[in-house]
Amino acid sequence: MREGIGALIGSQSDMRLVGEAATGQDAIDIFAKHDPHVTLMDLSLPDMNGVEVITAIRKANPRARFVVLTTFKGDVQALRALKAGASGYLLKSALRKDLLDTIRIVHQGGKAVPADISIEIATHAAAEALSPREIQVLQWIAEGCSNKSVAARLSISEDTVKNHVRTILAKLGANDRTHAVTIAVRRGFLDIL
Prior knowledge:
Layout: H1 2-10, H2 24-34, E1 39-42, H3 50-60, E2 66-70, H4 75-84, E3 88-91, H5 95-107, H6 115-124, H7 132-142, H8 147-154, H9 158-172, H10 177-187
Parallel strand pairs: 1-2, 2-3
Helix pairs in contact: 2-3, 4-6, 7-9, 7-10, 8-9, 9-10
């Protein structure tokens, strides 16, 4: 993927690739060395989340500009990235078509978010977010744990887990636990199943 992106950028007279990183820590180090105008950031890195990398770099360099490249279509992931300081959000399936224009827009100080992602964000803007504890409960449910097992893992009562599940279902508009997991994955509350 990086080679293809590098070749695409290299074919442009107004762009130059100054570095590549395989991990979040490498990205932080390479950014400090090269201070690029625009950084392309994957959300899934082996050592840390791309949002954490954006946050770390922007803490030291608030003017840093990022375009997130991802497979995550969910509003939650997009909103996290944008709140961390990303100016662009691009699905990997649209790279060939939209990458160069997105880089140019972000370089000029603009924002670039695909319409379908913007609609997802707007659709759920007024919805109540899941709490960190509710996300923990949902993660264990996604892994197939019963309420009793979730309670034991989180050192809480089974009734508390049942209350969390009811709240999760209501917040997500889900019919049952499986439906809640499906919605949570699609929206980006859960990174993996």
